[in-house]
Predict the 3D structure of the following.
Amino acid sequence: MIRIKALGVSEGLAHAKALVIREVDLTVIKESITDVVAEQKRITDAVEAAKKQIESLRDQTAKTIGEAEAEIFNAHLLMLEDPDFVEGMTGLIADEKISAEYACFCNCENFQQMFRSMDDEYMQARAADIGDISQRVLKVLKGVADNQIDAINEPCIIVANDLSPSDTAKIGTKPVVGFITRVGGRTSHSAIMARSMGIPAVAGMGDKADDIADGIELLLDGGSGEIIVLPDAETLTVFEGKKKAADERKHMLAAYKEKEGATADGHRIIIEGNIGTPDDAVRVAELGGEGVGLFRSEFLFMDRNDLPSEEEQFEAYKKACQAMAGKPVIIRTLDIGGDKEVPALGLEKEQNPFLGYRAIRICLSQTDLFLTQLRALLRAARFGDLRIMFPMISSVEEIRNAKHVLQQAKDLLRVEGVDFEPNVKVGIMVEIPVAAVMADVLAKEVDFFSIGTNDLIQYSCAVDRINEKISYLYRPLHPGVLRLIKMTAQAGNAAGIEVGVCGEMAGTRGFAPILCGLGITNLSMSAAAMLAAKADLAAVTFEQCKQLADKLLEAPNATEAEEIFSAWMD
């Protein structure tokens, strides 16, 4: 038996065999062949197999996510059916007597170069699609599974270097009971999505993951970050006892589904859910969420090689609004950059991306991109209480400029005779320290604040939140961070606007009373954390919340603040 400790990023207990997902090496070398006909047949057979894979993916995506999201796969099918594309490979085999693998590689390079040289931006973006479908054909030729996750049909705990948002989304449709990643932390996208789906997860394993072999029995505690390899009988008995207690608590929390968020003496705190896809909104509604406090719209743009159209975005936002049946749905405009990439935009690599060209800065410089999203949001607002939130705001000028583009979107829709909701509430993310310091001024410009604690903590503490070497410096209970939160809450309360927290602090066990005591009115978190937050609030009075918050604010450092919190939790 081996005990391994890493970082727990999504609470829950799991017991199953490991499924180790290894990086696939698709490197090819130039090899000569003698049987041209046989090698050409290998190519045509691989293309047909790739088509079947894509058709399956298209149908699955249309069923689980939506028809609009499935359109990218139709585009891939059209490319595979293009005679020029296929004949480019068979022709190379005939002319140069090279292997099917190398012909596939060369053909991909030729077509990508052709598309990149075109003046049309849309056609340039097709180069990435060529890369995707060529890689799929190459995997077939090498006998490599398209995606191990697609083939899962029995309970398992996934062990991987990392998981992309699309891979994590696939997990939600499979009997995956937990996952472990070598890299990442609490704020990595795979961790955020794991919490949203209620799947136990551990991150930051590093080389310790080498101790886990495929098919080996594992126990996983997503709260403590402990993993037990090949547990003995005594350990299994203890684990089952913990799992039984966790199930009993889960049953107890179910009683809070129909209850509003409030302290024991009736002080209201609205409990909402964070989502990344429209389908996530259904889970928020099912678990008693009082709204969606954060729809991360960037997930519609990631893990694809084109940009979502206005119509595709409209359908996604509309679906989320309909799922919440009139409850508020706050949609954050495109927040990319930092650790979030959108291939279709082709953004340059930066030395310090978290402080660079990202979020509202991109949208205000690429107004066509921004206008498309704002038009979709305004149209979808007719189907619910949709609210628009701008990320990474640092000044009044940015708010006014963003609102100016929003007005342009309204004017265009009005001229075109397109139905939309003109009276949409507008808010901002408070995640840059200067925004918290200037909150009293910014509050006059917007209808609500939402504090993004993930970035607020990393900027305030000068710590890269995804750097495992300095993760110990990422301290949510640092008194300086708490003071910035209180400062923002006071400014918002004085202006009569709602002040929410949508970062990971909102859903951290026991933190709801602290944030309540600091003056926060709304808490938005993963759907799986909402019931526990309601229970934490219901166990204390508003006065107790304020007393706890005051003690933490008075602490001289993060360590003493954490000790105060631990004692309070005990």
Summary: The chain has three domains: 2-24+149-251, 36-142, 257-569. Residues 36-64 form the longest helix (29 residues). DSSP finds 21 helices and 16 strands in the chain. The domain at 2-24+149-251 is CATH 3.50.30.10 (Glucose Oxidase; domain 1).
